[in-house]
Structures are given as C-alpha cells and as structure tokens.
Amino acid sequence: MKIEAGMAAVVTGGASGLGKASAKAFADAGMKVAIFDINDEAGEEHAAAIGGTFHHVDIMDEASVEAGFAAARAAHGQERVTLHCAMASKRGKTLGWDKEAGAYKRLSTDDYAFGAQGILVASYRVASISALGMANADPVNDDGERGCIILTASVAAQDGQIGQVIYGSCKAGVNGLVLPMARDLMDMGIRVNSVMPGIFATPLMLGMKDRNPPMWAQLNASVPFPKRLGEPEEFASLVLEIARNTYINAHQFRLDGAIRMPPK
Asked: GO MF terms on file (predicted)?
C-alpha cells in the first residue's frame, strides 16, 4: 500500500511505548493518526505533538471501541492501517505455593479469563471492527487493497516463561488469529499480520534502569545481537514497512535481536 498524505491510521495503546513510536512514524509518513488509549493526558499530548487526534477507548468494552472508530473516521476518514498495541492482563503461575496456607494455590479461572479478554478477545474486537469499515471503502491500489491490520503478539507466544501462562498462551492466540482472519478478509483486500517484539525499552522496562541496574545490564546482555533492548522506533519501522508492502500478508514477525527466552 502506498502511504499517501492524508491517509488515516488508528493506533491502540498509542499514548506510550511501542504504540507511541508507531503513531509518530505513521504521522511522519503523512498519515492522519487517531490514538486510542485510556491515558487521557499522555494521549492528548502525543496526539497534539503529531497532529493527530486522541480518543479515550477502553479495549475491553465493545461500545467504547466502536465509538472510538466512529469518532476517528469522522475526524480523518476511513482508516487504512490499524495497529493494535493495547492490552490488559494479569500474571501468575498455574500453581503457586501459598506460604500462609502451606499448600499450592491455583491461578484462578477469572484471572485467566481477564487476560484472555484483554489480549485475545480485544485483538479480535479491534481487528474485526476496523475490517468492517475497511471492507466498505474503495480500494487504494490496483491489487484491490483496502487496508492493513497489524496485531501485537510477543516472543512469549513462542517462548512463554514461568508465570506467563496467561500472557504467553493469549499472545499465541493473537498469532493464531492472523492466518484465518487474513483468509476471511482476502476477498475484501484486507491484510492481517502480527509482530512479536522481544524485550523493548518501553517506559515499563526503562524504570528498571534506575531501580535495578544489575538486572538492566543482564537484560541487555541476554540479547544475542545487538546487545541491548529494542528501541520502540525499530518496532515502528517494521510496522510501517508491513503497511507499505502489499505482499506481506498472514505473517507473524519476530523482532527480538535473536533472543530466545529461557524458562525464567
């Protein structure tokens, strides 16, 4: 897809981290960007900085997501690229030792279901609502392409660590959406792909730099090459190329400096 000035893009989780860098990359390429997030202050600030719009959207709520897309389309027209970075989850081992009870405690089904809603179901929700809008738009090129949807998985989808039973399995589910959804949408000219980032220097990880310098150094050293955490701009560079390259479809990309996560 040739990115034309004024084309619309939607980025969920665009107020910080990978989504923030990607929103800027899309804007720098000439796109009108709508940021979906629940962090109003950071979202408004970044939207203003890149000449986009901010929409308070809770990815766990169907009506909120539908309203966000409606508002973004009213402001910018039909989005041609949707990047879904936002998520919500919990953490825990399938069975953990409860010291007070002196017995094993099971990770609750409710906690697992919350993560499934915040990662897997939310990915389907955002992608399918965006696809419905794209399907009713005119093609943008001779291939009949109408849009591109990019989901964010994780290397945990393949290398899930101890304590990541929710995160790892649900991110694997995100990858599992890609091929069948791309096939569902092929007749409408809508592509679907995912990216599996490794360890990136997002605000959450950067906080460790001051709190625990030895752990920070260990994390950087764990990456085969380059010996550092990924930069959000490197993630943004990949998603921009996925959007631009019409022949990239139904693919799951690892972006990880060749890291393979150990059990813990």
From this structure: oxidoreductase activity
